[in-house]
Specification:
single chain, alpha/beta, Rossmann fold, 2 domains, binds guanosine-5'-triphosphate, binds magnesium ion
């Protein structure tokens, strides 16, 4: 099958259903990814394994902060481009900052408990490694408190096409790492295991450590020893500090990811789509549950959401003075509405959250008008998807039939993508 073609068709299928707006957006992102042929590789591992030191070594410059205590507190996405960096905040705002000042946003010491509300940082730099559309991502340590600041390492492993998993010879593989690998092995893209800090041990000890890692990884991944899969495990000894082995690692990753970009992309997009299809089924199941709800329960929840929206309307009228409104505040309101729909009906109501103009200033009138549109639209959509007050049995039957068709179509898609993955 032509994966781009099929994925575009899947996007169109989802776009036909109000209920699947989130999925339509997720699939649209994957279509973009296929078109742009961008390959993402995330550096993941427990804190203090030397992830950031290695990233700096790959970039050939000490751009990111490293240290003896847990440091990296936000995800940093590094792409090819003229030297510049942008900080994205949790509230949807973004700000361009000089590369030299980045440490103030991504190091725990300078941004304790993520007081600045950083969601993610994008750094552009002209490193050869990043040429041809490779994107490198540095992440906070697995199991560290900072993992919750932004997207978790788990989510990143799921999103990336490849993962450089950092181990280091000063510590055996621990339970947190084992649990992590077990939980992501199903859907993650290609894995490379970098064994760091080899400068502190001798060759004999290194051989022993590598042997130990190999056996352990086989058992975590469920590979038979000596099987083809076991032999394909990539364990790369490096010293990020002394910059030994890093070039070999880079060459291996680039050769794999760029020369086999097409194949890797197919694999990882297919895996992601299988995950999306699975989530859509859950969404449809919840939706059917709502349709089956006892009428009094259903009506009371519906009344609750309408009352909630009425209160929100009133609150708008009561806004006094001339406060400053940012588009970011609209984003926050959207998140509140999504949470309310989830709480009452168990479904994910999706909004586009625009990062680009999140800092745009709005007048009180603009803000109120947009918010009113948002409330009205939610009301109408909920009325429509739940067929509120719909007495026409034919319409109701058609709706249910449509959903059955969607389930059936999704099953067909699932089989197509599954063929790629296996
Ligand atoms: N001896 C030795 N020390 C290293 C090496 N690589 C990193 N380190 C040291 O390990 C410590 C942690 O390095 P970082 O790069 O900050 O580790 P990290 O994995 O990014 O840590 P978090 O961001 O907190 O998760 C620092 O003190 C580094 O100097 C290495 O190859 N050899
Ligand atoms: Mg770090």
């Amino acid at each position: 099958m032509d994966i781009l073609d099929t994925t575009i068709r899947l996007q169109k299928t989802f776009e036909e259903y109000e209920l699947c707006r989130l999925q339509a957006k997720q699939v649209a992102d994957l279509v973009q990814k296929l078109r742009k042929n961008e390959v993402t590789i995330a550096v993941i591992g427990q804190f203090k394994r030397g992830k950031t030191t290695m990233v700096n070594s790959i970039l050939g410059r000490k751009l990111l902060p490293v240290g003896i205590v847990p440091i990296t507190s936000a995800v940093t996405r590094i792409v090819y481009g003229p030297n510049r960096s942008t900080v994205y905040f949790l509230n949807g705002l973004s700000e361009e900052v000089p590369v030299e000042d980045l440490h103030a946003f991504i190091s725990e010491q300078e941004n304790p408990d993520n007081m600045r509300g950083v969601a993610e940082v994008e750094l552009q730099t002209e490193s050869d490694f990043l040429k041809d559309g490779l994107i490198l991502v540095d992440t906070p340590g697995v199991g560290s408190v900072h993992e919750n600041n932004s997207k978790s390492a788990y989510a990143f492993a799921q999103e990336s096409d490849g993962v450089i998993f950092m181990l280091s010879v000063d510590s055996p593989v621990n339970q947190i790492e084992i649990e992590f690998l077990k939980s992501v092995r199903r859907f993650a893209g290609k894995f490379y295991f970098a064994v760091n800090k080899i400068d502190i041990i001798d060759e004999e000890e290194l051989a022993e450590y590598l042997d130990y890692c190999n056996g352990l990884i086989c058992s975590i991944m469920g590979y038979e020893p000596d099987s083809e899969e076991a032999r394909a495990i990539r364990l790369i000894p490096i010293s990020a500090k002394k910059e030994t082995g890093v070039e070999e690692l880079c060459t291996m990753v680039r050769d794999d990811l760029i020369h086999k970009a097409g194949e890797i992309m197919e694999q990882s997009v297919s895996r992601k789509i299988l995950e999306i299809l699975e989530n859509t089924k859950v969404q449809i199941r919840s939706y059917r549950e709502v349709l089956k709800m006892a009428p009094n329960v259903f009506h009371s929840r519906f009344r609750e959401i309408h009352t909630f929206l009425e209160q929100k309307h009133k609150a708008l009228e009561e806004i006094g003075g001339e406060p400053v409104f940012l588009r970011a505040r609209l984003n926050e309101e959207k998140a509140i509405l999504t949470a309310k729909v989830r709480e009452l009906f168990g479904i994910e109501y999706f909004y586009y959250v625009d990062r680009e103009d999140a800092a745009e200033l709005l007048t009180k009138e603009q803000y109120t008008a947009e918010m009113e549109d948002i409330y009205r639209e939610l009301e109408q959509t909920l009325d429509a998807i739940f067929m509120y007050k719909e007495e026409n049995a034919y319409t109701v039957a058609r709706r249910i039939e449509d959903l059955n068709i969607l389930m059936h179509d999704m099953e067909k898609y699932r089989r197509q993508y599954e063929r790629i993955v296996h």
